[in-house]
Amino acid sequence: MSAAVVESQDAQESGVREGAFGNARALSCRECGHEVELGPHYACSECFGPLEIAYDFPQVTREEIEAGPRNIWRYKALLPVPTDIETSPNTEPGFTRLLEAKNLAAELGLTRLWVKDDSTNPTNSFKDRVVACALSAARELGSKVFACPSTGNLANAVAAAGARAGMKTVVFIPSNLEQPKQVNSAVFTESLVAVEGNYDDVNKLASEIAGEEDGWAFVNVNVRPYYAEGSKTLGYEIAEQLGWRLPDQIVIPVASGSQLTKVHKAFQELITLGLVEDKPYKVYGAQAAGCSPVSVAYKAGVDAIRPVKPDTIAKSLAIGNPADGIYVLDVCRQTGGAVEDVTDDEVREAIVLLARTEGIFTETAGGTTVGVLKKLVESGQLDPELETVVINTGHGLKTLDAVAGSVGPVATIAPSYAAFAATGLA
Amino acid sequence: MSAAVVESQDAQESGVREGAFGNARALSCRECGHEVELGPHYACSECFGPLEIAYDFPQVTREEIEAGPRNIWRYKALLPVPTDIETSPNTEPGFTRLLEAKNLAAELGLTRLWVKDDSTNPTNSFKDRVVACALSAARELGSKVFACPSTGNLANAVAAAGARAGMKTVVFIPSNLEQPKQVNSAVFTESLVAVEGNYDDVNKLASEIAGEEDGWAFVNVNVRPYYAEGSKTLGYEIAEQLGWRLPDQIVIPVASGSQLTKVHKAFQELITLGLVEDKPYKVYGAQAAGCSPVSVAYKAGVDAIRPVKPDTIAKSLAIGNPADGIYVLDVCRQTGGAVEDVTDDEVREAIVLLARTEGIFTETAGGTTVGVLKKLVESGQLDPELETVVINTGHGLKTLDAVAGSVGPVATIAPSYAAFAATGLA
């Protein structure tokens, strides 16, 4: 009896329907390789390493993908989701713009540059991708509640996706969170819970609840392996939108580090499946100086990540103890890339630079990534002659305060032509 | 000599390149039918009526459209833009989500309902569509400056599109505009000008500058005929995304009224071109009670619009003297639809209703439209058995204050499982 058949029986015994996870075969430990059946598991029972989805991919063609819907489900054969995923209510994220950024390229001295713009996703960040995959897992696993601890983008994405799916959604946030971020989640759910404490306290409480309560799917805790796969779609889309080829260099923000490793995984899968030509590419990680444990380890040439207490305006990147930090180091070093960090002032400048050159208003995470791109070019770590992609993961409307002090009207005038003419703008 | 050849000669004499406006033939007066050559004109020289684009359409096929880019330029043959439009830097708006809204339909007692969601456009409103067409016209007419008077969404769209196109952009706003809206424009342009006065004062100043200065393209003033055509793409997309067919009923917000008339124009063009089957459909207009001159005229059964002084939270719909109001009355009456209005409280409730049922966070304009949909069903003006589309034109992040008082955390708790269990959410 093949492993797949055993798995299928296991799944049926656990009440999960046939094909619930598409071409996913098992959960595999990233550290020791031990495999367990697909279910609400996230840590290896042997070594406590993180579990990842392992697949038996069929032959997938470019034509099949191109004939699919204009959202992440065009790649459903490469995700842990059922073949009928697009018929279940979801926010239909993805297939966001890949814009050639000629003005920004000229400003930075690059030959060819693209911005992958995830700020136009349904709730305006890349989190809609991962949450859509987590929602599918929660549904297939029969979860009663769709939940997360979060300080912003994730809360928005979970609350919106849960509402649309008609699932009970509970979102946990620190009680001192800015009101706009609270509103942007509370509008979607009756069950926004404010927790007295910082994000670490909220996160700890979420793990506790996940352990105590049956049927709660915390997207970034007990269904994390499914959730994290959603980030691969960023890599697939970039390759498809470039005309089924890989860029030479890519700059990706690093919070937990999951997104960077998944984009690399996506590129490798496309090569293995023969969907793009095999070629070398360099992966670069971007952090804010006020929370740069991975960048610090990279520069020191060490493998271990030393946790830090975050102090940066790039709050959506402010994870002091990044779960996938060591894998980020691996990917960046193996591909010949690097990890770099920029100050909060450089983040603010980069937000305005991207807006003024390309008409894209990014949040502080995107400012960090564009700022790091600039620094990598100036320091000679990134080759300006090679084709480069930079990822914008979220929208500036969510972090307005970052630039509110530095941009504004050039003049305030009386409503007359004479007053206007005096400004020198005529 | 044919009219087209004469036009082509005129265009060449005025320095405009051949094919600058695609299949557009002339500017035609909506009132008297007088035609003038394509140029920076917006009012009829004979009767001062509004000018509209007239076309000589070639045969266009579904396949040609479907093979185009995933943005509004897939419809370039039906717009006043050149055939190479997608190669000029622009924000690449459009092809936004058309979501089937089963939860909202159930809530309202409708059989089949769709939401066309323009909140995921590049600057988060439908204005990116019209501005992209205005930008093309400004470029082809050799304009030096890309400009607009605005209180919000239009300012964002113009500033972003101008930045990406590398054009000098000047945006005029009332000086008392909320800071978030100022930031969301100022981040893109060095030339945000605050004007002491209300929107009417700003608008008047813009017309004055357009008259005094050569080479200024005010998107909603002197290149308005090109600009307004961009709204047709909403209609094209809805039909294509429904599988090349028209809905039975559609509910559209009314500010100037341009969008509603252009969606109707788009449906008519698709029928004429044989791209969809001819069938009856009803068009409904949505206004806020605090600025409802068209709804008032509709209900009174009169043709004339009496201007009002706006007083509503739906500021992006607050045009007291709507230029296309009389045409909205025509379309809604001819198709068997209606024009309705809702109070600010109903707007707020509808924003939360759409968010809680479908995971879409709309601004006050969308709240108005969904609120009107609800009222139309309840009052028996809209048939619940017929397939209905409702348009969401913008993003709730831009009008947070509308719901900030009515949604928030359900509980604030200590970071412990015991405290959580006491909430009753477990």
From TrEMBL, chains A, B:
Its EC number is 4.2.3.1. Keywords: Lyase, Pyridoxal phosphate. It comes from the Bacteria. It is an enzyme of class 4 (lyase). Residues 93-394 form the Tryptophan synthase beta chain-like PALP domain. One of its GO terms (molecular function) is threonine synthase activity. Its cofactor is pyridoxal 5'-phosphate. NCBIfam families: thrC. PANTHER family: L-THREONINE DEHYDRATASE CATABOLIC TDCB (PTHR48078:SF6), THREONINE DEHYDRATASE, MITOCHONDRIAL-RELATED (PTHR48078). Belongs to the threonine synthase family. This is Threonine synthase. It comes from Nocardioides deserti. The lineage of its organism: Bacteria, Bacillati, Actinomycetota, Actinomycetes, Propionibacteriales.
